[in-house]
Amino acid sequence: MSDFPGPALSRQRLATYLRNLRGAKPAADVARAMHWSLSKLNRIENNKVTIQPLEVRALVQHYGIQDPDEIERLVQLSLASRQRMWWREEHSVDEDYLNFIAFENDASHMYGYQVSYLPGLLQTRAYAEALTASVPRKPPQEPRVQEVVDIRMKRQESLMQRLAGDNPPGLSQAIDEAVLLRAIGGREVMLEQLEHLLELSRFPTVTLAVVPLALGAHPGLGGPFELLTFSEDDDLDVVFIETPASDFLITDEEHTSTFRQIMNSLLATDSRRDSLERAVARARDTFLSDARIGG
Q1: How many whole angstroms separate alpha carbon 168 and alpha carbon 258?
Q2: What's the pLDDT at 48?
Q3: Distance of alpha carbon 125 from alpha carbon 44, whole angstroms
Q4: Euclidean distance between CA atoms 113 and 174, whole angstroms
Q5: Secondary structure (3-state) at 8
Q6: Residue 178 CB-half CA count within 13 A
Q7: Which residues of 30-60 are buried (b: 16+ CB within 10 A; e: fewer)?
Q8: By the 8 A CB rule, do 65 and 57 touch?
Q9: How far is residue 202 from each of residues 95, 171, 199, 206, 274, measured CA to CA in Å?
Q10: 239 φ, ψ (degrees, to nearest 5)
């Protein structure tokens, strides 16, 4: 099992393989032969549900696969895809968000752009509480607010464990300069948050780029997003877009390639660590000198 990717990539690979294996065979005929509903087969092939190892074995044998090594490889992918990870216990969270977290845990590089607030992976708990509470206009101690923040902190914990490991992922985030000046949570919260950004930037595989206000119009003004890439699967990019109404997970290469281009352009504007330090210093001076900022 150690030679297999995490559950998200395993499920994606298995779904793609099974969909290609069916080829031109009518889906209704395959579902009937397996004693499944057509909906179940469609959900398996579209990576909406996992498939049990015994079902994998029966399905690929129905397709004529006899090689025991190949069958075992697919069974192992099924086993890997069904690992119970912490995010699968978060039943009240949008499905696309859960799938994004699963992919994030497998990603070799995590990119993102934010124009209004700091990316979730970079937030301190105090910043996350103030930000999350502001949307529903609830107190930070409200259970729903704490639930959202807890999930964000668990994502960070997973990231920090990986960054400290033998094969750390890349983390490249482009942050609009205005984000550093927006006093979410008040002065003390922002001062702590700014210091946290500098600490994160010291990891060798972390790049925090500040998109300067002086840049004017640029490709990122289309909106914030997160982009995941995978060294184990060059054909798969995952884009996640979060909105107040719903979340969107995009895996179609025709669309994800656009976000790759935008990300490359944003990172090229400013990828030097000393630029982050200067931007943080300017923001810190603003919060220390402006008595109107609470906290």
Answers
A1: 26
A2: 85
A3: 37
A4: 5
A5: helix
A6: 10
A7: bbeeeebeeebbebbbebeebbebebbbebb
A8: no
A9: 33, 12, 6, 7, 11
A10: -115, 135
Q: Confidence class of residue 5 from pLDDT cuts 50, 70 and 90?
A: confident
Question: In the prediction, which pLDDT does 1 show?
Answer: 39
| 3-state secondary structure (DSSP) of residue 108 | coil
Task: List C-alpha distances in Å: 176 to 38, 182, 236.
Answer: 47, 11, 27
| Alpha-carbon span 115 to 217, nearest angstrom | 13
Among 170-184, 208-222, 238-252, 258-272, which range has the highest average pLDDT? 170-184
DSSP secondary structure letters along 212-281:
-GGG-S-GGGG--EEEEE-TT-TT-EEEEEE-SS-EEEE--HHHHHHHHHHHHHHHHH---HHHHHHHHH
**For residue 83, how far is the Cα from the chain centroid?**
18
Structure tokens at 53: 């190892």
pLDDT, tens only, 210-249: 998 888 888 888 899 999 999 877 788 999 998 877 888 9
Sheet containing 109-114: give its strands across: 206-211, 170-176, 109-114, 225-229, 237-242, 247-250
What does the block give as tokens for 23? Answer: 């080829």
What does pTM read for this prediction? 0.84
Which of the four pLDDT bands, split at 50, 70 and 90, describes residue 270? low
Structure tokens belonging to residue 217:
């119009």
Does 271 have pLDDT greater than 80?
no
Burial 246-271 (b: 16+ CB within 10 A, else e): ebebbeeeeebeebeebbeebbebbe
